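cron nightly-structures :: item 1 of 1
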Amino acid sequence: MNPLDMEALREFVNKNISRFHQDRVRLLEKMNLISLLRKKNPYLFRAKNITAPSELINDLLAAVLSSTEEKLFGEFLEDISIFVASQTCGAHKSTASGIDFEFAHKGAYYIVSVKSGPNWGNSSQQYSQEQDFKEAIKRLKQSRLSRNIQPVLGCCYGKGRTTFLRGYMKVIGQNFWYFISEDPQLYQRIIEPLGDEARRYNDAFLDSRNAIAVQFTNELKATYCLPTGEIDWAKLIELNSGNLDLNIMGSLVVEDLGD
């Protein structure tokens, strides 16, 4: 394998990480108070004894942004791994469904699908990944690349031993970055360029987030609060979960499926 040019990696990160931060801002811009109040469990926030409108808005924003940001950054981290592999082992983007890149190394031909972390997907998605590997192997065996083909599921972060199951090799965290670079410290080294522009981008994001929080707090006070200024939980829960359409006299017919 070729050694990774860290300056090239830094340039790639600085050039492309803006997309992650722009997506965070766009996520805020697409929000409105109603959609925010409907996204999360209102009973949970009531049980946490939240009484101030500003506290509720900040907690809701934090909960919604956290899950979405992890997904967005996971996709960016996957892009970094593909860039690294292209530099170190001549990997190229795969045309096969569900496969991110392919490369040859030491007599084997690797087809790699990259996931952000080890706990990805439900059983249906995992089954689909297995089928994608099988189809890719079948296609390659019909071509000149009939050598030893090894499917790999690479996870950018997390702990766990390398395993062989479901017909593919699963490599996690440090092992994955070593697999595509033969550098045992790369998993730590890639953290450095990620912080180069972080403060500038994050300050701009926080300005947008704070403006949205103030706007939503004022809207919440005007629409979903009592004259005392406290949150009108009954009204808020009606917005979130009110949908009664069952006949309370029990006219709903349930088909008898038998024993």
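cron nightly-structures :: done
Residues 53-88 form the longest helix (36 residues).
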